[in-house]
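Meet today's protein:

…
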Amino acid sequence: MIRLTPFLWTGPVGSGHPIGFVFSQKEWIIMATEPLDTLKLIAKRLARAQQLPHIAALEIVACEAGKSNWRSLAEAYKQGWRPSPQKLESLKANIGTQSVPGARKNASPHGLGEGLVFSRCVPDHVEPLEADEIHGELDGHTFYLVGSEYSVAFGSQGWEIELEQAPSAKPKVRRVGLRAKSATALDPVFIERATKLLTIRARRMHAEIASDWPRRSTQPDHKGRALHPLGRGLSAEWHCLHCDGTHDGNTMAKNLWHCPDCGASPIDIFREPFFDVIEPSV
């Protein structure tokens, strides 16, 4: 059984607008009588987080447990082999992040070269891009990188670049220091490299969201039907309350149920369209 602790999802930092209920990835607890059942649940959660086929997730979990593939793991289990409690705890703790080596997809800051140096991470026992708070230097400029369930932000030189929750979100640059130079004075190459690092970090945020949703919310069926993560049913067509946009199930699943046109959150996405009611003239 998986116990998920709900919390109110309040949208991007500072918005103050409640947009629904999700489940905290950090609060999930697996309670299974058999280690094999626990491994299956871990694989299921990994498949959601990384949007992988279930069989691929099983293979990754098997490799992380020390076996060449899931079939060999199952055979070894029949013969009495069991994963250590420490290995199970490690796998449970890392699902939904980029921490499972076999599941990492572009988690390394590839292409940023020697100009990137990490100096401090919080917490300090994880890989830099798995930390909640990162400090370092990029091309000689000190920076910080922070993230939550709602957005990630890169700060340097009195400016901050923010990416909100939707994968389609565009970076926003805003001044956070009174003595910050003008936006036109910022090195565009530096901004591009900083945004690349920010985008890599955002993948962890996306994975954590997907891992808490039903699998069909991020993996539509063969008919293109996707399941709304807030319990609004299964459909191949979805409509945005804010902009009246219409999108298919694959598009919504790929963009984590944010409208690709206006960025509206999942609570504003419905199976049925909305029409303006025109009052009859008297």
The chain has a mean pLDDT of 79. Helices lie at 35-50, 54-64, 70-78, 85-94, 188-211, 215-218, 249-254. The chain has three domains: 2-103, 113-211, 215-270.
